[in-house]
């Protein structure tokens, strides 16, 4: 499995570990273990429910049109492994959703049967039904007619919720894991406490010192069994050396895990400051998790400087990650403003949507083929606004294809990124002042990310 795919899996594990007391550890000599495998050329994603014996396989299919090695999808199957059933199978689900049984394909009706209360490992009486859970299926899953949902939410505004998301853990998911695994209420998040370990693990001297301790421990206390083979040795010293060496192993594993998964981007506080210092509300944990876990694999954004440039544009385009539809067009669709003869589908409007505010039919088509291999975004452009996942995916797609490889981006020239996104209007047109405001925002985001704002490079747009 390529390293970038392993990183996506590690980040999904860390998303759980950083917010609960559940920790994933590398296999040593355990008899029962989870084995995560990528299946090339096959699309199924599957995992057995709960713990089994021996090798328990989580299968992640990878095809040009469906890739299960994505943050939210992996989280879904990890929760399944941890023993969490699908949300729509709760015994009280009829109070919250309606199941359209006639539209379920043959042989799949059993997946919509309610389960007994005892099957659920968390307190159903304490935890309300969660439309936003990673364990809630897509409303169209197993539908005979793919245009008609199988699951309909009750007593809520359907335009305000999105069931079947595969973006990140909901607040309810986190509470359920903590409840099921008896996590202490005062647990410190590993994403913060692990920062020290990560920084140490990135220091050459840290590894040299650990290596030296290991060698010295092995020479001074060569025997680590219950009984000393050297009559001059004592069990107390042996137990002490064993403990020290085990602690070193734990430090090495944790340091490696956090250095791989955290080092390249930012923590939540930095991400939040990037918005709040500009006067916007603090982002959600889901927004943060998607950004740090998908920016690299989906947007080719691997370093902090490029992450600051990308996030600046996403903040600017979406009014602080709040607007997934262009404000002026949300009411009437801005008829006539974004027409592309030969591409447009009747009844659809192609105004700005998502965190990059994707516009024009040809951009929706290109994004659709890149993400899915078909024209589903042309047929339904508003799905980019309805789906949190697509709002991010199209933003990362646009950056990867139109911005990342532009000469000067790798060197940190922010003006080049503005030119790639809206150069005709802001770099060579009448809205140069808008481009200048973007640059001022970028300096603030750099500062939030711990980068020198005075080192921001303005070149590439109006100069």
From TrEMBL:
Keywords: Hydrolase, Metal-binding, Metalloprotease, Protease, Zinc. Its cofactor is Zn(2+). Pfam families: Astacin (PF01400), Glyco_hydro_19 (PF00182). Its EC number is 3.4.24.-. It comes from the Eukaryota. Binds 1 zinc ion per subunit. PROSITE patterns: ASTACIN (PS51864). Residues 1-184 form the Peptidase M12A domain. The keyword Protease applies. It is an enzyme of class 3 (hydrolase). Gene3D superfamilies: 1.10.530.10, Collagenase (Catalytic Domain), Endochitinase, domain 2. This is Metalloendopeptidase.
């Amino acid at each position: 499995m390529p390293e970038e795919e392993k990183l996506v899996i590690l980040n999904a594990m860390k998303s759980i570990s950083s917010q609960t007391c559940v920790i994933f550890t590398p296999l040593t000599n355990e008899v029962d273990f989870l084995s995560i495998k990528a299946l090339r050329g096959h699309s199924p994603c599957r995992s057995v429910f709960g713990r089994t014996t021996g090798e328990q396989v989580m299968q992640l299919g990878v095809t040009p049109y469906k890739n299960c090695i994505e943050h939210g999808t992996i989280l879904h199957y990890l929760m399944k492994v941890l023993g969490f059933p699908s949300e729509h199978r709760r015994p009280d689900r009829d109070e919250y959703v309606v199941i359209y049984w006639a539209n379920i394909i043959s042989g799949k009706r059993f997946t919509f049967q309610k389960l007994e209360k005892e099957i659920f490992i968390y307190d159903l009486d304490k935890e309300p039904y969660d439309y936003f859970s990673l364990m809630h299926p897509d409303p169209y899953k197993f539908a005979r007619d793919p245009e008609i949902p199988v699951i309909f939410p009750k007593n809520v505004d359907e335009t305000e919720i999105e069931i079947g998301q595969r973006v990140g853990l909901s607040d309810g998911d986190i509470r359920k894991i903590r409840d099921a695994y008896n996590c202490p209420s005062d647990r410190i998040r590993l994403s913060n406490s692990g920062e020290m370990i990560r920084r140490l693990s990135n220091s050459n001297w840290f590894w040299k010192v650990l290596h030296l301790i290991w060698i010295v421990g092995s020479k001074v206390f060569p025997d680590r069994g219950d009984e000393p083979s050297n009559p001059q040795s004592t069990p107390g010293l042996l137990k002490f050396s064993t403990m020290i060496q085990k602690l070193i192993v734990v430090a090495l594993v944790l340091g490696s895990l956090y250095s791989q998964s955290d080092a390249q981007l930012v923590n939540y506080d930095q991400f939040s400051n990037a918005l709040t210092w500009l006067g916007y509300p603090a982002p959600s944990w889901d927004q943060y998790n998607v950004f740090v876990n998908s920016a690299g694999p989906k947007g080719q954004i691997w370093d902090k400087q490029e992450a600051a440039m990308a996030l600046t544009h996403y903040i600017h385009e979406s009014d602080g990650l709040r607007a997934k539809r262009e404000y002026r067009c949300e009411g009437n669709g801005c008829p006539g403003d974004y027409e592309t003869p030969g591409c447009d589908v009747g009844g659809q409007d192609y105004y700005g949507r998502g965190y990059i505010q994707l516009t024009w039919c040809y951009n929706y088509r290109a994004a659709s083929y890149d993400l899915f291999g078909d024209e589903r975004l042309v047929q339904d452009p508003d799905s980019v606004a309805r789906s949190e996942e697509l709002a991010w995916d199209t933003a990362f797609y646009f950056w990867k294809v139109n911005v990342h490889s532009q000469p000067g981006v790798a060197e940190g020239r922010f003006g080049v990124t503005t030119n790639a996104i809206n150069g005709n209007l802001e770099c060579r047109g009448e809205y140069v002042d808008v481009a200048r405001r973007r640059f001022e925002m970028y300096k603030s985001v750099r500062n939030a990310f711990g980068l020198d704002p005075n080192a921001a490079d303005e070149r590439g747009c109006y100069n």
